[in-house]
Structures are given as structure tokens and as C-alpha cells.
Specification:
The protein has 189 residues and is mainly β. The protein has one domain (21-173): Sandwich (Jelly Rolls), CATH 2.60.120.260. The protein is 10% helix and 36% strand. It contains one helix and 13 strands; from the N terminus they run H-E-E-E-E-E-E-E-E-E-E-E-E-E. Strands 1, 6, 9, 10 and 13 form a five-stranded antiparallel β-sheet that branches. A five-stranded antiparallel β-sheet has the order 2-5-11-7-8, with no helix packed on it. Strands 3-4-12 form a three-stranded antiparallel β-sheet, with no helix packed on it. Strand 7 (103-111) and strand 8 (118-123) form a beta hairpin. The radius of gyration is 18 Å and the shape is globular. The structure holds calcium ion. Calcium ion binds next to loops. Calcium ion (CA) is lined by residues 52-53, 55, 57-58, 62, 64, 165-166.
Length: 189
């Protein structure tokens, strides 16, 4: 491949990425299991439910996800057959008065099995989260397609509890491992 052709191919891929990427996270959740097919992945450390990360509300008076520990994991199941390639994600803090609760150091991970997780991004030193502040984190390349995504934070900013007001997941449509798109004309008898 010539350098010029390679540049055209890369340029096209870059354009496709920017043209078709979108926030595939829900922002209308009303419980940790609704609306389907979304299910929050959270353990008993949950104090205010994890779905508040995906309820579309980020005001000072809105309830964020609150977790009863300075470290932990929380994620989302996109549903069977619903896999996405992640390119960037963001966290929002709704209230600077609780900035001590917001994660500071974490890995962002994807999975298709829940038993093994692939680390997609490693972040450290995220301090001084303001009211309504949204911070976006971009991967070096779009990830493989995953059904499950989670943040695994090892430290927050000094609080006894942790909190996240909202999260976006931006990327591209993907095909789940083992699932191959069938032509529309193919009818299985
Ligand atoms: Ca929210």
C-alpha cells in the first residue's frame, strides 16, 4: 500500500469514527433494571442506586449514585446481543460540596463474560471536581465490542463514600463475539 493510499484509508476510518460515534448509554433509567435491557452491575455497597449514573439528571438537588466505600466497581449490562465499541466515556459530578466522593484513580473496563475484564483505560489524579463538571476520557483507539462496561476505582478524593452523578459511553455499533449478522433474506426453517 502506498503512503498516499494508507493516508486515504486512515483518513476515511477517522471520518467514519467521528461521523458515526454516539453516546450509547441510556439516560432514562428509573431503577437498576429498567428500562430493559439495561441492568446495573453493582454490589451491596450501593447506597443511592447505581442507575442514577444513567438517569439523565445532573443537578445539585438530583440524587447521584452513592457507594459506601472509597473504592469499588460499578458498571452496566447493555443487554444480550447488544455490544458496542467504546471510544470515549465521561463522568459528571453534580455537586462540588461532595467532590471528596468522586473517583480519583481508576481503570475503565469491558467484558463479554463478566468473569474476565479487559482494561481499556487507566486514569489517575482526577481531583477537584466542580459542580456540574463533566470530564471526558478518550481511548487511544476504539475498543473491541463489549456487552458489559464498568469503572473500577481504587481511590476517591478522600471521602468515606463515593459518588458519580452521570456517565456517558461514546462509541460505535459492534458485533458481539460469536454473533454474526444474518442477511435479511436468510430465513431459518
Ligand atoms: Ca444522574
Amino acid at each position: 500500500m502506498t503512503k498516499r493510499l494508507a493516508a486515504i484509508v486512515w483518513g476515511s476510518a477517522f471520518w467514519v469514527l467521528w461521523a458515526f460515534q454516539s453516546d450509547f448509554a441510556p439516560h432514562n433509567m428509573t431503577s437498576d433494571t429498567a428500562p430493559p435491557p439495561y441492568v446495573m452491575l453493582v454490589d451491596s455497597g450501593e447506597y443511592f442506586p447505581a442507575y442514577h449514573m444513567f438517569d439523565g439528571l445532573t443537578g445539585v438537588s438530583d440524587t447521584p449514585f452513592v457507594y459506601l466505600s472509597p473504592s469499588g466497581t460499578v458498571g452496566i449490562d447493555l443487554g444480550a446481543g447488544n455490544c458496542k465499541s467504546l471510544y470515549s466515556y465521561s463522568l459528571t459530578n453534580n455537586d462540588a460540596a461532595y467532590a471528596v466522593r468522586v473517583p480519583k484513580d481508576w481503570t475503565f473496563q469491558g467484558s463479554n463474560t463478566l468473569s474476565g475484564w479487559t482494561t481499556l483505560d487507566t486514569v489517575t489524579g482526577q481531583t477537584a471536581w466542580g459542580t456540574g463538571e463533566n470530564r471526558s476520557f478518550t481511548l487511544s483507539i476504539p475498543s473491541a465490542a463489549f456487552r458489559y462496561f464498568r469503572i473500577n476505582w481504587s481511590a476517591n478524593n478522600g471521602g468515606g463514600e463515593s459518588q458519580i452523578a452521570e456517565m456517558t459511553l461514546v462509541g460505535l455499533p459492534g458485533t458481539c463475539p460469536g454473533l454474526f449478522p444474518l442477511p435479511n433474506s436468510l430465513v431459518v426453517q
